[in-house]
Predict the 3D structure of the following.
Amino acid sequence: MDNSFVTLSTPTWCERSACDASGTYRMTARDGREVASGSLGTRTEYPGPGTYKVTVAMRARSATPAFDARGGWTRTITLAWPKPAPVHTITVTPSTIRPGRATTLTYTVTRHDLRGDSNARLGLIGQEGTGLRLSSSDSQCTNPLAKAYPSEERRPHVLDCALVGVQPGRPTKVKVVVRLGAHCSTIISKMGYWLPKGQDTYTGGMLKGPVVTCAKN
């Protein structure tokens, strides 16, 4: 665990052979509110100090087919490490889109202090196969290429924006046009950015952005 992310895993021992453990977990607060969930061994956003209930469903398999077991457990854990103040925040308006329409979304990235630098990469992605198309007239944004060279085909449901002027006191706004056909799709967002100690190999941060939902009526 670091002060931005937490990783949950479970130890497993198999006699006389290597053992593979996989599964999922769900972490809830005392009021039953889910604060984290996902696959074992992957990072999730650190929920902050507090007491949480963790429920795990897992599978353990040995290298040979002799052992293959499934099970689960629930534990209560207490985390004391303080949650850091955010370096950036991301907002979007409007937060709802509708099928059969084109909607202009405005994403606002606000940098709160001088940690890191003014560069950041904002990524948006809709649900593949729904016909959703993302575009922007902002020169910082592009749809990523989908195939090997020399193909110029791009993924219409994905948009990447390489922001280069994100400064405290000067929020950066990006306008994105969303075109939906007959099918609904949500749009999720996340943003990567540099942190101090830039020459360290494993540096940088990833921020979860807002989710744009879809309403059928």
Q: What stands out?
A: The mean pLDDT is 90. The first strand starts at residue 5 and ends at 7. Residues 110 and 171 are 5 Å apart (CA to CA). The radius of gyration is 21 Å.
